[in-house]
């Protein structure tokens, strides 16, 4: 299995890091909150709300990343090292995105998001 494929697994798991941060860092997530976790998350504010928002964005972007990695492998137009580097750079961008979201650095977060989307596009372009 290639590093790029492992990065797909990491990308799948990253949103759960975000939601765990939102739910479990305040000490108020218990059995009552677990009966309706979406309502609990909707009622958060501040950096915990932003962690929940980062989770949602992670679930939105991960399918595109996974498709790009799979298609890049199948197309075979790029070397494996380059695919691995692009995939790893995407994971780094998602971690940076999460940090920017938590810190409420909106403009930087948007820039990091653009970089991540550019990396997805790059996986297609280098394999063409």
From TrEMBL:
Record bears the keyword Electron transport: no
Chain ranges passing through the membrane: 110-127
Keyword line: Membrane, Signal, Transmembrane, Transmembrane helix
Localization annotation: Membrane
Superkingdom of the organism of origin: Bacteria
GO CC terms: membrane
Chief place of localization: membrane
One family name in Pfam for this protein: MAPEG
Signal peptide coordinates: 1-22
PANTHER family noted in UniProt: BLR7753 PROTEIN, INNER MEMBRANE PROTEIN
Protein name: Putative MAPEG superfamily protein
Source organism of this protein record: Pseudomonas fluvialis
């Amino acid at each position: 299995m290639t590093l790029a494929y492992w990065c797909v697994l990491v990308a799948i798991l990253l949103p759960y890091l975000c939601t765990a941060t939102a739910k479990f860092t305040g000490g108020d997530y218990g059995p009552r909150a677990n009966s309706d976790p979406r309502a609990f998350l909707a009622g958060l504010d501040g950096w915990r709300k932003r962690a929940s928002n980062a989770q949602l964005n992670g679930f939105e972007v991960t399918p595109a990343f996974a498709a790009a990695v799979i298609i890049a492998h199948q197309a075979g137009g790029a070397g494996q090292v380059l695919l691995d580097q692009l995939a790893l750079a995407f994971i780094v961008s998602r971690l940076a995105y999460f940090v920017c979201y938590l810190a409420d650095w909106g403009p930087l977060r948007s820039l990091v998001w653009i970089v991540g989307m550019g990396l997805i596009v790059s996986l297609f372009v280098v394999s063409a």
